[in-house]
Amino acid sequence: MPSAVLTTVAATGFTVAFFHAAIPTHWLPFVLVARERGWSRGRTLAVASLAGLGHVALTSLLGLGVAWFGFQLEERVGSFSWIAGGMLGAFALYYGWRQLSGRGICHHSTPGSAHHPSERCGHEAEGSHWQEELRASPLVSARTGEMAAVGGLFVMLTLSPCEAFLGVYLSGVQFGWRGFVVLSVILAVATLGGMTLFTWLALLGFDKVRLRSFERYEAGLLSLVFGLLAVVVLALDHGHDH
């Protein structure tokens, strides 16, 4: 039964990370900057992958803190499943509230732009908005060196970790360090795979696909995913006890 729970958590983690990577903020800036600076497809994909590694590294580091906290708590309370299920349910309610209130999930702003990150929530993440930010950003300026442009994109994505995956790390606490390693690998594969795929498709001219809907309804989708995961974790743990 524990293996069934881990499989469920792992599948959920892959879904969360992959669809998070589908959000335009994770690939559109690389495509737009590449077009302005005349980068090749190979260079653009390499820069996107490098930034994705930073994104994954910071998320994993935060996940390490979540895992350590969970391990300490599990030693004191014994079974951790009901705590994880309750917290996942709380995450589901939180993201549901953000979706219904129109707040959505805030994502990073382009380095050097005049927009504050808090302005980039919910329904404002349209392609034209990124176009406006990039026109005012040093990332596309001829006066900005190539390494500075790459560094700007790296920092932009690295400093915006996948907060939703922290809930997945929490649900994997009951599996110890093995669970943490498995989920970290899944986070890396799904994130880098998703970013590379959507960046490549955009470079081929498929950037008009309505992937912005993922960002607009991301909070609602996460609410549904965490709600289902909470039910599964609690149900499987209850079945295991009996």
- Number of DSSP E strands: 0
The structural class is mainly alpha
Helical residue percent?
A: over 70%
How many individual domains? 1
General form: elongated
Would you give an account of this structure?
The protein has one domain. About 7% of the residues have low confidence. The chain contains ten helices and no strands. It is mainly α and 242 residues long. The protein is elongated and about 60 Å long. α1 packs antiparallel against α7, α3 packs across α7 and α7 runs parallel beside α10.
Short description:
The protein is mostly helical. It is built from ten helices and no strands.
Task: Tag the structure with descriptive keywords.
242 residues; elongated
Itemize the secondary structure elements and their pairings.
Blueprint: H1 2-21, H2 28-37, H3 41-77, H4 81-100, H5 127-135, H6 146-158, H7 164-171, H8 176-206, H9 212-216, H10 218-241
Helix pairs in contact: 1-7, 1-8, 1-10, 2-5, 3-6, 3-7, 3-8, 4-7, 4-10, 7-10
